[in-house]
Amino acid sequence: MKSFSIAAALLAATATAAPAAIKRQADFSPDGNYFPLSNGFPNPSPDQILKIQKQAFGTLPNGPPPPSISDDTKTSLKLIALNELFEVAFFTELLYNVTNKVHGYDIGYGHDYVLHALSAIIAQEELHALNANGALKNFGEEPIQPCKYTFPVTDFPAAIGLAATFTDVVLGTLQDVQFDAANNKDAGIVRSVGSVIGQEGEQEGFFRLILKKNPSALPFLTTSVRDFAFTAIQGFTIPGSCPNINTIPLQTFGALTVLTNPVEPKTQNLEFSISKSQLNSTKYDDFSVVYINQQNLPVVKAIQNPHWKHDTLVFEAGFPFDEFEMNGLTIAAVVEGKGPFATADDVAKVAKFGPGLIEIN
User: Residues of the signal sequence (predicted)?
Assistant: First the structure.
């Protein structure tokens, strides 16, 4: 399943971008098939794993797994594996482009440092994927296989901005993974997931510095839910290319595009769109926009000025930036109903479209 508007919304969330390159880089993976890599990933040999660990500056966890986990926690592991495979593909292409100074990726000063950092990030993401898929195999589940991918970036600043946005989504989603594991009494995975949250946070600080932003966005990072991440990842996959994504029992929402770009740090109306082809009917009277930001209660706003533009429903909703200091990542969703909602999970239960991803600061 593919939604280019989700990918476009992710890209639009980046506040800093160089002029578009002459063409999208296609030398590394012209058909979107990234795997297997030269190191054997996603199925490396034991010797190749040793080399990946050296590149990652650390090892796979070698302690015993818990004796059992719930089916819901297995779903979380499947989502983690799906996401890590996507990230390995993205960062591998980015490393290739910077290494070869593809048009738009000749970064000049700092070139060697960035190459060193990206090399470590790739290996660390490979270990994350191997750890999640290894746990699935241990519990009798089929490992998640990689898809074919396409990434809508043509220069280094846009690529880093996109990486920063999807890493923010990961940081929010892993909160949900820990919460669900705690509810399922699967304490055995919580510490490992927490260690990955820290690692992803270190990456995010690196991306934000490159974008000349505060290294830390918020005092309490925005939460998310697994369904939103599952939908967003599919925005970068080529339709029909994911061999066993159907084994992940999560919901895929319709695409919600944030048309306002950039989103300034002020109270304002934001403009959104939904494709008519994804609406079950032309009725939208009961739709609301919900914003999830930080650890605060979701904010519900009525849609305003809805109108059809060709085959697209365009509408606005208030964005109360000043009232809630809505910096960092905000996740927007369109729901049926007016709320209120106590949690992000409650929003996801009734969401029809999303996530629309908004980045400020």
Answer: 1-17
DSSP state of 64: P
Q: The domain that contains 203 carries what CATH number?
A: 1.20.1260.10
> What CA–CA distance (Å, rounded) separates 146 from 73?
20
Nearest to 355 by CA among 263, 234, 186, 188: 234
The first and second tokens of residue 151, run together, are 């990434």
> At 135, is the secondary structure helix, strand, or coil?
helix
Question: Given the structure tokens 């797994």, which residue do they identify?
Answer: 65
Tell me, yes or no, whether 252 lies in a domain.
Answer: no
* 3 state SS of 272: strand
Burial class, 235, CB count within 10 angstroms (exposed 0-12 / middle 13-18 / buried 19+): buried
- pLDDT, tens digit, 9 for 90 and up, residues 132-181: 999 999 999 999 999 999 999 999 999 999 999 999 999 999 999 999 99
Q: Which domain holds residue 51?
A: 4-247
- Global pTM? 0.92
